[in-house]
Model the fold of this input.
Amino acid sequence: MKYKAIIFDLDGVICFTDHYHYLAWKKLADRFNIPFNEEDNNLLRGVSRAESLEIILRKHQGEPFSAEQKEKMLEEKNETYKEYLKQMSPKDLSEEVIFTLLDLLSEGYRIAIGSSSKNTKFILDRLGITKLFDAISDGTNITRSKPDPEVFLKAAEYLGLEPAECLVVEDAKAGIDAAKNGGFDSCGLLDARDYVNTTYGIDSFKQILDVVHNN
Ligand code: B16
Ligand code: MG
Done:
């Protein structure tokens, strides 16, 4: 058994909150007349909140915003986003995800979260799955965001394992790069499936079981 643990990215892997991110950023961008559409939102996948704002502000014309203004914008976006998150419930978790996680646990694998989101624990609680995870590493315990490997290295440290013993599951290229930079093998879904740095491209969440069984 090559891998002792699986470290899951949250947004885009376990659940899908990107539309809520979009609506919250859109509300902010509209208020400041900054062009922002779904295509722009795709650039923010896996990127931290503060870096996301910098990407959005590239389309802002006029006086640059001060650090204080940006801080307020980040707070405002997060308040809107959290209002949307309150709508989430265990119904937002697919059967495929929950059954795969339970299969992995019953086979003796340990499972962890490695997410850039500072709202990770809130989201996991809404989904009712916080207790399933042996370790949670998220935006609250890191100083550098993906593609820096810090979030996954912390998850491995919390599990007491080496990176080579953990498999990372990601949907974002920045997350796959973070895994590679930290010495982790990775499973890539969606945008990350055919990415050059992805170790195993997979079409569905349950294929993680094939990957761990074949290694
Ligand atoms: P928050 P992940 C990421 O989650 C999202 O993909 C990204 O769009 C978001 O900006 C980031 O979390 C920070 O989220 O504002 O909640 O701290 O894919 O790393 O699970
Ligand atoms: Mg993601």
Observations:
- Residues 9, 11-13, 45-46, 171-172, 175 surround magnesium ion (ligand 2) (CB under 6 Å).
- The radius of gyration is 17 Å.
- The chain has a mean pLDDT of 97.
